[in-house]
Please model this.
Amino acid sequence: MSSLDAYAKSTLDDLTAKTLRRTLVATARGAGAGVERGGQTRVSFSCNDYLGLSHDPRVIAAGREALERYGAGAGASRLVTGNHPPLLALEARLAAHKGKDAALVFGSGYLANLGIVTALAGAGDLVLVDALGHSCLFAGAQLSGATSVRFRHNDLDHLRGLLTSRRARHGRVLILTERVFSMDGDRAPLPDLLALAAEYDAWTLVDDAHGLGVVEAGARAPLEMGTLSKTLGSYGGYVCASRPVVDLLTSRARSFVYTTGLPPASAAAALKALEIVEAEPDRAARPLALARRFTARLGLPEAQSPIVPILIGEAAAALALSAALEARGYLAVAIRPPTVPAGTARLRVACSAAHSEAQVDGLADAILAERG
Model:
């Protein structure tokens, strides 16, 4: 056995012993909330397709038309091969949706955050990241070369203290947070956070991956980042900002400059989905309403978003509950460290407009039955 294979095996053995090893499971998603695993149909509550638009016939038709007209791929970096028309139309619509001058689409949300943070911060600067922010926010901060500090989750007093003690020692300051936190489903206190940032001349980036179209009303940050792969049912990432900022990112964001552009079909599908989001407010409101129905049935605090965490504690217990629910016909995948802090393994329940009230009630009743 080579040293590489030996390292991989020993590390995997250690992960297995700690119930932290991850594996891929063949799963076929269909229209609605149904999935097929191992020849059995389950109702999935583990998908971020919050409005069920990935299977909407209008979205599929838009993607198919772009595929047939413009081909399967973008061909190269957009700076090399040029912008294909669906991308131009999508960026204009995203900017208008967010009330910004311009938008820039990246290959994924992860790539977007890597590119934005590293283009705007560097040595001598300060990046402050909410402790429960997504991994890509921390990765961008680390890659930037700036001083990176976590602030306690949604704790504006702690954030103010860090700004007060550190601001004068640094040039530029970025604050990174999320509108809706992906593993807890709670929201950032954005109006107060943005006011605090302005007081200290700090630039705020809000990751809106899980808020777009379902929980996004209210204050806008200077940097509104998000994904095309959740509410919009497609694939890719974006940032909306002022024209000078977008122009700077076009030249300086390495994960944009040196990456092949988004395929035309993905851009066209996302554009059609965004049009549907704006035209059908009742559909956009449904996931939050269902999540609140779910929390009421379980006696949990009222949901702030379509995401509801069922906190378990240890990874093995979370896996056991997930398996028991799957046997009852529901897919609610266990989330374990390091995705969440040690001792906070959970089931992450994501409600979608594709779910029925009966399906939501059924999952709640199954959880109550399994947990006694």
Remarks:
- The first helix runs from residue 3 to 17.
